Amino acid sequence: MQIEQQIAEIQEVVADVLKMAQQKGATQAEASMSKVEGIAVSTRLREVENVEFTNDGGLGITVYVGKHKGSASTADLSKSALELTVEKAVDIARYTNEDPCAGLADKELIATEFPDLDLYHPQALDTEKAIEIALATEAAALDYDKRIVNSDGASYNANMGMRVYGNTHGINTGYPSSRYSISCMMIAAEGNEMQRDYAYSVDRQASRLYSPKQVGEEAAQATIERLGARKIKTANVPVILHRDLASSLFGHLVSAISGGSLYRRSSFLLDKLGQQLFPEWLTIEEKPHLKSALASSNFDHEGVATKDMTIIDNGKLATYLYTTYSARKLNTQSNGHAGGIHNWIVGDSGHSDDALLKEMGTGLLVTELMGQGVNIVTGDYSRGAAGFWVENGVIQYPVHEVTIAGSLMDMFANIKAIGATRETRGSVQTGSVLIENMRIAGN
């Protein structure tokens, strides 16, 4: 069945469910349905460890009876099951407390235009091909160097699906999407020391993935480079967060400026709108409509139209991120962030990776972060780390068993440079980030 026909059939189901909800007493309702089929293959030590097929789907409905909310879901799309699901949602709404902020997004904010974002690139779910890719990836890593002594495995994943959303304001639309990935994790040994590292590739198009050989060899090389890791003395030094994990720094910004944290007054960035948080040269833009990007969407999970936005403008906080509910709690409007962010593009200072090391001089290049020691209420930051010690702009040796600590406010303000080569495998696209000074806890 063609994907367009499947989406049309699901739209009919969503329309029927919304009609049922109104007939059963709902004053407003919204329904969404997703369907995903895929394959996941994993190998370990040149043998197939797991082959898994996915064919999942389900419909969820939320109804509002006045300002009372009820939700229910089902994987059974028979008419009787759908009727029962709607009845349950309406029954639940009659028993929940009234909430003046409950309800659909404002009608004028609902998306009405749906350009093709090039998110769907289907490919046959070929088991033999998937196994071949995973085995080739792991083989490339195992054969790379004799110091690669063990494997945590390689994997290949392919997922294709669709999402349909509709509500009683009139929207009822859907889109297909695809996602493919290859990953590999290796273990290296030298003497009594063992180290582990990984590499991966992910894209909307299978043809644009890194080759199995490239992923495997990157995993092996990254693992070998960690051999000979040392501890270092406690000090205050500059730190570079490698682009592979620098997105996590801006992920903390996302949490701190999200409406849910704000109306609960549990964010260190409360009442900071318009204030200088970053250096003046830094701007962060949100681009929801980038072709083929991993976080592109014409509308959020509530049907609110997404649009280009400036998040950080010359270092100043230009906006908070609102869902419908959080916006009403804060007496403003949703700006399309139910379900997350949509392609943040972090500005850079034009530095190459080598130039960034030279700019730092002596300090720590962080390539792995561990633990969850970040407090969004206070902005306190403390995480386990590993990476490489750098002197005079040149990597000297690997480092492990250290902790980097500071406050997110200081970390944001003390960003000295950001690399021009961006990591694009996620919802935040950023280069490596040089922070002028952090506390490194070691020996």
Automatic annotation (TrEMBL):
<feature type="domain" description="Metalloprotease TldD/E central">
    <location>
        <begin position="120"/>
        <end position="227"/>
    </location>
</feature>
<dbReference type="InterPro" id="IPR045569">
    <property type="entry name" value="Metalloprtase-TldD/E_C"/>
</dbReference>
<dbReference type="InterPro" id="IPR036059">
    <property type="entry name" value="TldD/PmbA_sf"/>
</dbReference>
<protein>
    <submittedName>
        <fullName>Metalloprotease PmbA</fullName>
        <ecNumber>3.4.24.-</ecNumber>
    </submittedName>
</protein>
<dbReference type="Pfam" id="PF01523">
    <property type="entry name" value="PmbA_TldD_1st"/>
</dbReference>
<dbReference type="Pfam" id="PF19289">
    <property type="entry name" value="PmbA_TldD_3rd"/>
</dbReference>
<keyword id="KW-0378">Hydrolase</keyword>
<feature type="domain" description="Metalloprotease TldD/E C-terminal">
    <location>
        <begin position="235"/>
        <end position="442"/>
    </location>
</feature>
<dbReference type="InterPro" id="IPR035068">
    <property type="entry name" value="TldD/PmbA_N"/>
</dbReference>
<dbReference type="Pfam" id="PF19290">
    <property type="entry name" value="PmbA_TldD_2nd"/>
</dbReference>
<dbReference type="GO" id="GO:0008237">
    <property type="term" value="F:metallopeptidase activity"/>
</dbReference>
<comment type="similarity">
    <text>Belongs to the peptidase U62 family.</text>
</comment>
<dbReference type="InterPro" id="IPR002510">
    <property type="entry name" value="Metalloprtase-TldD/E_N"/>
</dbReference>
<feature type="domain" description="Metalloprotease TldD/E N-terminal">
    <location>
        <begin position="29"/>
        <end position="93"/>
    </location>
</feature>
<dbReference type="InterPro" id="IPR047657">
    <property type="entry name" value="PmbA"/>
</dbReference>
<dbReference type="InterPro" id="IPR045570">
    <property type="entry name" value="Metalloprtase-TldD/E_cen_dom"/>
</dbReference>
<keyword id="KW-0645">Protease</keyword>
<keyword id="KW-0482">Metalloprotease</keyword>
